[in-house]
Amino acid sequence: SSASKEGYPHFMLKEIHENPIAIKDTISGLLNDIDRVKEIAEEIRNAERIIVTAAGTSYHAGLYFSLLLARRGYTVMPLVASEYHSVRAKKGDIVLAISQSGETLDVKMGIRKFKEEGAKIIALTNVIESDIARESDYKLYMRAGPEIGVAATKTFTSELVSLKFLHSVVERESLDYLEKAHEIVRNVITETEGFAKKIGEELANKNNIYYLGRGLGVPLAMEGALKIKEIAYIHAEAYPAGESKHGPIALIEKGFPVIFINTGELVDELEKNLQEMKARGATTYSINVNERLNFSDNEIVIKSDGRLAEIIIAPIVQLIAYYAAVRRGYDPDKPRNLAKTVTVE
Ligand code: AGP
Questions:
Q1: 10 Å Cβ neighbour count for 212?
Q2: Is the N or the C terminus of the chain less surrounded, counting Cβ atoms within 10 Å?
Q3: Cβ–ligand 1 contact at 152 (below 6 Å)
C-alpha cells in the first residue's frame, strides 16, 4: 500500500528517496497542464504586486519563488502566512498560496481576506481539491504523491520544481533544462548520501548550528535549519551569509558548526563569510554546486546544470537532518509537538 515503508527504516528516508520520482511527476503534470500554467504566468506578468503566502517549508519555497521574481524586477512580497493581518491586498494584486496539504489555516484565512480585498488567488498544493485549492481562482498541483513523514521532504522539492517551472513560463524561457532533473537528482542522492550521513552524525553532538547562504541559497539554508530543528531537536538558525556579521557571528567559538549553501552564485562573497567564521574557530561545511569554496573544512561539490542548483541541494539538506535525528535516537517520522497539517491559528 502507499503507506508502506518499502524496506526503508522510516517514511522520511523513503520520501527523500522519492524526490526523483516526485520531480518527474511534478514536471509531467505541469506539462499536461501547460495551458493553465501559461494563463497563470500571464496573470503574474500583469500583476501590480505578487504576494506569496505560505507557512514553514512551503514558505521557504515561496521565498525562493519571490527571489526568482524579484531579481527580474517584479514587485513581490513573500509573506509568512500567519502574518496576513499585516498586509492589505488590492485589486491588481495576485496572491500565490503555497501549501502541501492545502489545509493550513493561516494560509486559508489569508487568502479569504486577500480575496475580499480584491486580489486574485493562485494556489499551489499537493492535495488535489483541498480547501485552499477550492477557494482559489487558479489551481496548480505539485503531484509529489502522498507524504506521510511530518517533516516535508519530497513536497518541498516538488514546490521548488513547480515554482521554477512557473517562473520559466513567466519569463518565456525554454523548459528543456528540466527534462533530466529527476535523473540528475537521483544521481546526486546516490553520490551524496554518505557525505550527508557523515555530516548529520557529526552535527548530532552539537547544540547549535548555523546554515548560511546567499541569493537563492538563503531559502535552502532556512529549510536545512528548519529540518534539523524539527526532527533532530538541535537549535539551528539560517541567515543570509552577509547578515551573519551583523550579530550572529558573536556566538561563534571553537567547533561551532556552520554549513554553507553555495549555489554557484556570489561565491567570492560567500567565501569571505566562510573565512570570517573560520577565523573565529567555526567548523565549516559546504554544499556546493559547480564552484568550490576554498578553506571549507568539509565539502561536497556537485557538477551540474546551475539552473537546477537549489533543486539539487534540497535532498542533501533533508538527508543531513535525517541522519542527525537518527544518530540522536529520535524517530524522524514522529517529531514531538508537530502535526502534519496545522489547522489552528
Ligand atoms: C515542514 O517540515 C513542516 N511540517 C511545516 O513547516 C509545514 O511545511 C507547514 O506547516 C506548512 O504546511 P503546508 O505546506 O501543508 O501548508
A1: 29
A2: N
A3: yes
Take atom 2 of ligand 1 and give the residue whose Cα is closest: 151
pTM of the entire structure? Answer: 0.97
Does residue 340 have an active-site annotation? yes
pLDDT surpassing 80 at residue 127 = yes
**Could you tell me which of 249, 243, 254 has the C-alpha nearest to residue 221?**
243
* Catalytic annotation, pick one of 90, 180, 334, 340: 340
Q: Which amino acid is at 133?
A: A
Do the interacting molecules here have an ipTM over 0.85? yes
Mean per-residue pLDDT for 46-63?
98
* Half-sphere exposure of residue 66: CA atoms within 13 angstroms, side-chain side: 25
Task: Give the ligand 1 atom nearest the CA of 335.
Answer: 4
Q: Is 321 in the pocket of ligand 1 (CB under 6 A)?
A: no
Residue 332 in contact with ligand 1 by CB distance below 6 A: no
Residue with cell 531559502: 219
